[in-house]
Design brief:
This protein is of the alpha/beta class. Among the domains are: about 60-295, Aspartate Aminotransferase, domain 2; about 300-330. Helices cover about 35% and strands about 20% of the residues. It is built from 13 helices and 17 strands. It has helices at about 45, 55-65, 80-90, 100-120, 140-145, 150, 170-175, 200-215, 265, 285-295, 300-320, 345-355, 375-395; strands at about 20-25, 30, 35-40, 95-100, 125-130, 160-165, 180-185, 190, 195, 215-220, 245, 260, 325-335, 335-340, 355-360, 360, 365-370. The protein has a seven-stranded mixed sheet, with helices on both faces. Strands 1-2-3-15 form a four-stranded mixed sheet. Strands 13-14-17-16 form a four-stranded antiparallel sheet, covered by helices on one side. The two termini are about 20 Å apart.
């Protein structure tokens, strides 16, 4: 997203931010110091899962901050133990490694996949197959895995160990497997790539393929996990289970936290000293994540996400039919929804900002609508009506 860097800013120019600066938030809205109210359908890029200022989340964070900010993983962290048990009880996993971000969670998973093959007696198996259009983070390993040219430029040499095939093509995936292949890494829904959905049959066949060749199946659910799609994990739509899953974004509701989940088979090689993090799983992050799970696992919450996601897709589909010269297809699941554009997505995003609504650009000339999971129909209506106005203005140019 293009913007204008602050004049005389000492912040490194890795972003070109909008001039808007926010002072506070409430629910699905944020407010500037001068009182401008802006509807947040970007959620800090799918992070503020339970909205701004949720009282239960704030109370949990404040209570922990008042007691203790940090101590290391050299000692037992009770809230970490509790969160790990809740995540494993509600997933395929048997253990969890906590870190600080999605990229770190993916890095942990990459190491885990390689370590598994070494422990299984196959050190020659050290390559991971990924899919075109994917995004896994901004570290050298994760940009090497995704192989997107715009993220790779200027950072050569990248890391070896990753092969890539077309997303959704099981025949190409199978053909790419060699004696050196250790695992498969995919997103069930490609978020940054443009909200492209993997069909359930494809995910099931990935599972069967991994089993056939003795590979680990690794799902990047940094953007899709923790209720964003209407289920706690997107893989649940395919009625199958991976071996490894990376989480972050919505897990902390705004506090930085990442997690790498693994089943017993995948985690057998991880021992004391095999991986670590100074800040990962710290008491404040764990208090926040447990509070988020309190809300998301509450009665009816995921059903609400599914209902609101269906309504949002219906409204955007109708808008696409109204403005066929500007908009194309609607894609996604739950409240991770994108609409492809004929007009330039960055222009539409900027125009929405002028209408006091935040949406997020994505690959494949897509505009993402990813509101907090607490969003209501009237707030969806407000966002869609603003988008209608923006599309009408674009048509008039």
């Amino acid at each position: 997203m293009q913007g204008r860097a602050a004049v005389n800013s000492a912040v490194m120019t890795t972003y070109a931010p909008s001039d808007i600066a926010f002072d506070r938030g409430e629910g699905v809205y944020m407010f500037t110091k001068d009182g401008r109210r802006i509807l947040d359908f970007g959620s800090g890029i799918a992070v503020t899962s339970v909205g701004h200022g949720h009282p239960h989340l704030l109370a949990a964070i404040h209570a922990q901050v008042d007691k203790l900010l940090h101590y290391s993983n050299l000692y037992t962290i009770p809230e970490q133990e509790r969160l790990a048990k809740r995540l494993t009880d509600n997933s395929f996993a048997s253990s969890v490694f906590f870190c600080n971000s999605g990229a770190e969670a993916v890095e942990a998973g990459i190491k885990l996949v390689r370590r598994y093959q070494v422990e299984a007696g196959h050190p020659e198996k050290n390559r991971i197959i990924t899919c075109s259009g994917g995004f896994h983070g901004r570290t050298l390993a994760t940009i090497s895995a995704a192989k997107q040219e715009k993220h790779m430029q200027g950072f050569s040499p990248l890391l070896d160990g990753f092969d890539q095939v077309a997303f959704g093509n099981i025949n190409e995936m199978r053909a790419a497997i060699t004696d050196a292949t250790a695992g498969i890494l995919v997103e069930p829904i490609q978020g940054e790539g443009g909200i492209h959905y993997a069909e359930p049959d494809y995910l099931k066949r990935l599972r069967a393929t991994a089993d056939e060749f003795g590979l680990l199946l690794f799902f990047d659910e940094v953007q899709t996990g923790v209720g964003r799609t209407g289920k706690l994990f997107a893989y649940e739509y395919a009625d199958m289970e991976p071996d490894v899953v990376s989480l972050a974004k919505g897990l902390g509701g705004g506090i930085a936290v990442g997690a790498c989940l693994a089943n017993e088979r995948a985690s057998t090689g991880m021992a004391p000293g095999s991986h670590g993090s100074t800040f990962g799983g710290n008491p404040v992050a764990m208090a926040a994540a447990n509070a988020v799970l309190d809300i998301i696992l509450g009665d009816g919450f995921l059903g609400h996400v599914q209902e609101m996601g269906k309504y949002l897709k219906e409204r955007l589909t109708a808008l696409g039919e109204k403005h066929p010269n500007i908009l194309k297809d609607v894609r996604g699941e739950g409240l991770l929804v994108g609409i492809g554009c004929h007009a330039t997505n960055l222009d539409l995003v900027k125009a929405m900002e002028a209408e006091n609504v935040l949406v997020i650009p994505a690959g494949d000339n897509t505009v993402r609508f990813i509101p907090p999971l607490i969003v209501q129909k009237n707030e969806i209506d407000e966002a869609v009506e603003a988008f209608d106005k923006v599309c009408a203005a674009a048509e008039a140019l």
